[in-house]
Amino acid sequence: MRVLAAMSGGVDSAVAAARAVDAGHDVVGVHLALSAKPGTLRTGARGCCTLEDSNDARRAADILGIPFYVWDFAERFTEEVIESFVGEYAAGRTPNPCVTCNEKIKFEALLEKAMALGFDAVATGHYARLSLVDGVPELRRSADEGKDQSYVLASLTPEQLRHSLFPLGDSHKSDVRDEAERRGLAVARKPDSHDICFIPDGDTKKFLERRLGERPGDLVDAETGAVLGRHTGVHGFTIGQRKGLGVEHPAADGRPRYVLSLEPVSGTVTVGAAERLAVRGIRADRAVWPGGPLDGPTECVIQVRAHGGTADAVAEVVDGEVRVQLREPLRGVAPGQVVVLYRPDPRGDLVLGSAKISGTTS
């Protein structure tokens, strides 16, 4: 197969490209330039997709002996990922930009261009297992549970999965680093990137304030309706947040307060006791089903954060909406997050589908 290896400049994508070469594929490496001003070098594990990363990817491609290109996706990244991220926060939702990037950039824009150029598949360094059974893609958790990235890949369509390769799915991160060292790849011990790539200092609130300005509103106690303070914008909060609320007057019971809901039109941030965060039902839309939609109520395990825990549930599709009833309540579930449904399986939990959370019930 002709395979386009997406090379971020990290150890995972470099080893994934190497394994694609070992498998006998005709491999070409490509680095995506996602910033209009990529001159800033990363510091430690902050950020990714910088000029330094591009150079690291090029050196890895040279060692592997494969052609290498840099494709400019900065404009599309800004529109599809950054502007979407800002817009979601302004609307009182909590987005996951890594899910959006995988969906819109790496497996829509990149795959679209790769197919137009005659490639058969795109290979990436994601930790997830992927197989085709009678032409139907099966996406599963990786062997390394601590690095599993099936959550951020669960929004990919069946057609996108049919043209994807995840060579690291059966590996553990420590083994991947050792392999990179044996291959002489300089990125073998390079730190993993963390945080949001377009917010390298990790200060999301400051980033949003620069983009959205101040939109003052009240902090309101859910129990009494009393105004506990003022804030500079709902975009500075997420459901379940405890610290940095700016509460000027302690609640009557003296207990900590958490963000319960956000109302962007009025600017109201409602806070209350921890038990009010408990969610027993989830509504979601824009569902994607790798193996086809659910057939009636289905026992499953759900996950609502990339690195969060799981919960047993029953899910079904009603009038085009995914409805999830939890066996035990979850806390801090926010509109804008993605809920991923899994079916427990000895070979690694199978992704049944994913959807964007639109609301919750307690």
Task: Summarize this entry quickly.
The chain is an alpha/beta fold and 362 residues long.
If you had to describe this structure to a student in words, what would you say it looks like?
Mean pLDDT is 91; it is low at 41-47. This protein is of the alpha/beta class and 362 residues long. It has a six-stranded antiparallel beta barrel with strand order 12-15-14-13-16-17. A hairpin with a 2-residue loop joins strand 14 and strand 15 (321-330). Helix 1 (11-22) runs parallel beside helix 2 and helix 1 packs across helix 7. It has helices spanning 11-22, 51-64, 74-90, 97-116, 150-153, 158-162, 173-182, 204-212, and strands at 2-6, 26-33, 68-72, 121-123, 128-133, 136-141, 164-165, 217-221, 227-231, 258-263, 268-272, 279-288, 298-303, 310-318, 321-330, 338-343, 350-361. The protein has eight helices and 17 strands. It folds into three domains: 2-125 and 167-189, Rossmann fold (3-Layer(aba) Sandwich), CATH 3.40.50; 214-276, Adenine nucleotide alpha hydrolases-like domains (SH3 type barrels, Roll); 279-361, Translation factors (Elongation Factor Tu (Ef-tu), domain 3), CATH 2.40.30. It starts with a strand and ends with a strand. It comes from Amycolatopsis bartoniae.
Mean pLDDT: 91
Number of strands: 17
DSSP strand (E) fraction?
Answer: 25-35%
Placed side by side, the strands forming the largest sheet appear as 12-15-14-13-16-17
Q: Helix content range of the residues, please?
A: 25-40%
Q: Can you tell me the overall shape?
A: globular
CATH class of the largest domain: Alpha Beta
CATH architectural arrangement of the largest domain: 3-Layer(aba) Sandwich
Q: Quaternary status of these chains?
A: single chain
Radius of gyration: 22 Å
Number of helical segments? Answer: 8
Q: Could you state the CATH homologous superfamily of the largest domain?
A: HUPs
Largest sheet: 6 strands, antiparallel, barrel
End-to-end Cα distance = 50 Å
The arrangement of helices and strands along the chain is EHEHEHHEEEHHEHHEEEEEEEEEE
Overall structural class, as computed from helix and strand content, comes to alpha/beta
Low-confidence stretches: 41-47
